[in-house]
Design goal:
Blueprint (H helix, E strand, L loop, with lengths): L2 E9 L2 E9 L17 E4 L5 E5 L7 H12 L6 E5 L11 H15 L3 E5 L22 H9 L5 E3 L6 H9 L5 E2 L2 H6 L5
Parallel strand pairs: 5-6, 6-7, 7-8
Antiparallel strand pairs: 1-2, 2-3, 3-4
Amino acid sequence: GPLMIDVEFGRGRSLFALAQGVFPPGAGDGSPASENTGQLLSVNADGSVSIIADGLNQPTSMEIIQKMRDAVGPDFPILVRIDSDQLLGDKGITLKDTIKHVVPAMEKAGVDCLDVSQGDILRSGEGILIPLYYPRGCYMDYTAQIKQATKLPVIGVGRIVDLDMAEQFLQEEKADMIFLGRQLTSDPDTP
């Protein structure tokens, strides 16, 4: 199945990943993936992966969130950004995978809010740096589906360029909050 990774990085023209595991989970314990593989992977041009190193024992997302919760206590909010869909088809995490595996895992881990994005900065950047010819707010339906799958507050993002548009998505209950990060960076006077 699709690979669940915690850290992804590029060097030159190469893409590498620290593997957390593979969908679907084997034990069905609510984890989004099998146990931490501790492998450093090279992602090939065709989407396949090659193992470069084994036994790195990097902590999983669940372990990191639990350590954060232990450090800050129960009254400090932990917000987690997740991909609704990596926009890579069967080679990545899909919206269905996120709803079935990632959302329950984040709930189980005790996060307080999901900041929902989409895309993959190195392999499907159109979800991150949304082209101007894409409709404004074009990925909010993904966010809405995540919102329907959880009781946690959900933050929507993605080429939302004014307060009227943000208010519309809130009224349509597609999200509980809206981030206007790039819009406010490019035009701090956005009304």
